[in-house]
Structures are given as structure tokens and as C-alpha cells.
Amino acid sequence: MNHETILRFRKQRGVNLGSWFVLEHWITDDPFRCAHVPGQSDLDVVRGADARRILEEHWDTWIRETDFAWLAQRGVNTVRIPIGYYHICGADPSVLKGTAFHDFGYVYGGAWSRITGAIELAEKYGMGVLIDLHAAPGKQNNDAHAGTSDASTFFSEKASRKHTITVLCTLVRLLKPFRNIIGVELLNEPHPPSDSDLQHWYTTTIREIRTIDPQIPLYLGECWRTDAYVTFVERLAPALRGGLLVLDHHLYRCFTGSDNTTKAAEHARALADPNGGTQKVFENAAERLGRAGGGLVVGEWSGALNPGSLEGWDGERKEYVDAQMGVYEKWCGGWFFWTYKKKGGKDVGWSFRDAVEAGVLPGWVGGIKVDRVKWEAKDRRVVGEVPVRKDVREKVIAGHIGYWAQYPGEYEHWRFGQGFDIGWADTYAFFNTAGRVPGFLGNFVIVPEIGFKGAWARRRTKDHGKGYWEYEHGFLQGAKAAEEEFRRVWGVK
């Protein structure tokens, strides 16, 4: 099991590095000080005065190495970096041809070296990187964070859609040398006129990218229509076996009228309810995507609430954040808080750093806590060779057989046992890679856990026939039992 595979399939606990490359005025207004009217987008900035100096100064100061160190010490193992197509012109100037940024190569020429520097810094601190195409040619939505203040033309102009495929193929080629790329997000928050328009474009794009890199995970924005895009992945996956296909859902509770009249405590209760709408949607999506060889993440979420949702009691926002994390940890292959930092005073709703320092987010988000000194002093080969606990195995298998004995039918319970053994062994194989990146982890070691369990289970057997469900159930039970055993022996509360 190589390093690259571990990073791609582990549980991703991440943060968005917002307004580093694709700028957002509400996060930091510094780069907009000389921007052209209306002063809300990247294109407005480059049309203003002194753009190159302003942007290069911003790229070199907004996120520094000390920020990566701070994140690693709190268990963050992945960052999502939003970029625009124009940010890669320093590596390939042709990406600007025929676009709104065609005259500004001299401004963005230094961006790509900063992006690759960020990727290298992330690897130094044991982090994976999800590169997100936040701004595509023609704009995939009408927001200023899609690159310009103009209206979107992505879905009305065939040339923009075609050029975006070229941009993404170029991006994938450029990223191939980096071992810590966990995936590429094809479009951030696309706003198509219909699902069929976007899904047709996704299909064409994925086929093109797979000819360049068959294994790179591809993340797909699902337009807040999760079930429809789960069905799409189920249909698409058999013809495109290879790297992960991951749906990216964004969850906020502060934008609609209904959100704003719902109290924070009720938002939390609704999210935490195992029979509630959100959990049922996520449960269904996680199971179906896993069997298709894919997965689900929440690529953006926050602690932000409308003032109308807040009642002023200590802990209400933390309760809301805890409820979200509980859902994501249970059903998703990963999550990415929006955003790492924000200028303009403390903002515990939108700034990860402020939320951690205020206790709204936990000081450690890295999952299983393992004491670094204890771990480094131990011969970790022992961890990798932990045999299946026979008593646990027998108990779990007996429970499985006993349950299905209520329902007469033809079963292959040996498949459950096979799955249990593989789930246990692979869970420990992931755990045993902990600490391979020296230093920078504070008092605790970041322990990789299998994140996309369904997809991982599928790739570990070639038999996906009618008996697969028993193998899959066994795998998940074996992984759960191994994690419980590891926590018992190594975990720090």
C-alpha cells in the first residue's frame, strides 16, 4: 500500500485555504484596494492599478509555512485550495487564450510556482491537497468567486465548456509529479440549466482526464441534488473503473429565509437526528456511492449562523458545529471547513482559526489521538502485524449468522468472514503508516483511517456478484472492530 494511495483513501479532515488565489472581498479586502469597479472579483483586481505587485504580495503573505504547521498540530490532514484557470498560465500560457483574462498573463505568471510551493509545504507537514477549479472559463455560476463580476456563460457557450476540459487536462498533467494530491475538483458549485447538461459535461471531462491519469480521484460538485448525482455516478462508474469519483456537497445553514428563522439548537437537533433528512440522505448516498466505487465529502461547511438563529447562550454555536462534525465523521469520506482565516476581527462562524481558538471547534480534529512519544518509542511492526481477535471475530460472525437466520434464503456467510478479515487487516495497515512524516505534529500523531470505506472494500475483491453484500458487511464490521481495538490499546482520551 503506497503513500499516495493511503492519502487518497484516508479520512480527509480538512480546511479550505479561501481567498489565497481566488479572491473573495468579504474574507479579505486588501487585494481589492486598487480594483476596478465593482471591485468584487479577480478580474476586477487585475483590471485595476498595480495588480501584479498587489497579488504577489498577497500570495506570499496570506498563508505562510507557520499556518501549515498550526493546522498539522491540530490534526488537519488535508487542505482544499481553490484556484482559477488563469492561475496556471505560468506553466501553460495557452489556458488564457480567448478568455476574459487573455491580456493578464504578466500578472498571473507567478501564481503557479506559489501553488506548487503550497503543495510542497503541505507534503512537508503530512497533508494531502485537493485542487479545486473554483473559477472556470466562462464562469460556472454567477458568483464573483467564479473569477469575474460578469454573468455566467459557461453553460451557454460550448467554447467555454470545451476550453475548461483542456484546462483540467493541463492541470492534471501538471499535478502528476506530486504524491500528495488527493484529487481535482472539476468545478466548484456549478449552476447548470439542467442536471443533464452538467452530467454530459462531467462524463466527457472524466473520460478525457482518465486517458491522462486513470487513478487520480475526481471530485464532482452535486448542485445540492445529492440523490440525482449519486444515480449519475452509479450509472457512470462501471464504464470508468479507476480512481475515485467523489461527490462534493456543501452545507450551510445561514442563507435561506428558513435557515434564518430556525434557532441554532434546532439546526443542531435536525442534523444530529439519525432519522432526520440530512442523515438519511447522507447514509443513502454513502452506501450507494461506496458500492459504485466512489464516495461523499462535504467540501464546504462552517459554523456561521444568521443572527436570527442565535439566542445568546454559551455553547449554542459549538453544539451546531459538533452536530455537523458528527454527521460528516459518520457518513463522509472527508470534510473541509470554509475557511481557514478571515480578516476584520474575530469571526468564529467562518474562520477555522478563530473558531478553534474560541473553543467552538475542538483543538484536535484529527480523529484517533495517539501519544507521539509512546508511538515513536514502539516498534510499529507490531502494530502492522496485529492478528484478528478470534473472540471478536467469532462473536461478530455469530451475530451476523443469527440475524439472517430469521430470514430464510441462500447465504454465503463465509464471504462475511472473508470481508471481516480484510477489513481488520487493512484498517491496521492504514494505522501503521502513522508518523511517517517526521515532526511537526505536536504532542499527538495523525493516524490515517480508511475514509472511503465502501470504495476501499470494493477494490479489495474482484467478486462483485450477488454475494458481495455479505463481504461488504463483513469488511465494515472488521474495520470497526479493528478501530475499537486500536483505540483501546493506543488511544489517548
TrEMBL record:
PROSITE patterns: GLYCOSYL_HYDROL_F5 (PS00659). It comes from Collybia nuda. Belongs to the glycosyl hydrolase 5 (cellulase A) family. InterPro entries: GH, Glyco_hydro_5, Glyco_hydro_5_CS, Glycosyl_hydrolase_5. GO terms for biological process: glucan catabolic process. This is Glycoside hydrolase superfamily. It holds the Pfam family Cellulase. SUPFAM superfamilies: (Trans)glycosidases. Residues 64-343 form the Glycoside hydrolase family domain. The keyword Hydrolase applies.
